[in-house]
C-alpha cells in the first residue's frame, strides 16, 4: 500500500468483465495536511496508484506501470464532500502484462478515467 491507512476496501465485486470496488478514504490522513490545507484534494498520482493496487489484488501479482496511454482527471476528489470512491476496472491479462481501462467515481460523478498497461514483476 502506497500510503498506510489512506483507504479501506468496503466492497468489491465482479460484474461481467468489470471489477467494481468501493473504498473509503480517510479524510483525516496526513496527505491532506499539505494537499491542501483547508481544502483537501486527493492527489492525482494517488488516484492512479489506487488502480495499480486494485489490479494487484485481482491478479495476485506485483505490477509496474509500463505506460498510461490516456489519463483524464475530470473532477476533484474531496473527501469532505464524500469519503467514498468507486473504482471500476476492466482488466485484460496477457504475456506478462495487465491492461486496464479504469474509471474512478465519487457520488456517481466521474473523477478519473485511465487506460494503462502494467508489467508483471518477475
UniProtKB/TrEMBL annotation:
Gene3D superfamilies: Hotdog Thioesterase (3.10.129.10). Residues 13-93 form the ApeI dehydratase-like domain. SUPFAM superfamilies: Thioesterase/thiol ester dehydrase-isomerase. Pfam families: ApeI-like (PF22818). This is Hydroxymyristoyl-ACP dehydratase. It comes from Salegentibacter chungangensis.
Amino acid at each position: 500500500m502506497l500510503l498506510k491507512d489512506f483507504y479501506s476496501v468496503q466492497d468489491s465485486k465482479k460484474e461481467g468483465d468489470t471489477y467494481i470496488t468501493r473504498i473509503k478514504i480517510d479524510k483525516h490522513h496526513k496527505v491532506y495536511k499539505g494537499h491542501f490545507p483547508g481544502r483537501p484534494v486527493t492527489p492525482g498520482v494517488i488516484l492512479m496508484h489506487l488502480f495499480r493496487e486494485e489490479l494487484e489484488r485481482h491478479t495476485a501479482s506485483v505490477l509496474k506501470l509500463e505506460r498510461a496511454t490516456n489519463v483524464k482527471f475530470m473532477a476533484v476528489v474531496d473527501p469532505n464532500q464524500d469519503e467514498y470512491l468507486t473504482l471500476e476496472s476492466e482488466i485484460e491479462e496477457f504475456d506478462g502484462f495487465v491492461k486496464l481501462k479504469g474509471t474512478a467515481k465519487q457520488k456517481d460523478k466521474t473523477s478519473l478515467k485511465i487506460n494503462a498497461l502494467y508489467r508483471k514483476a518477475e
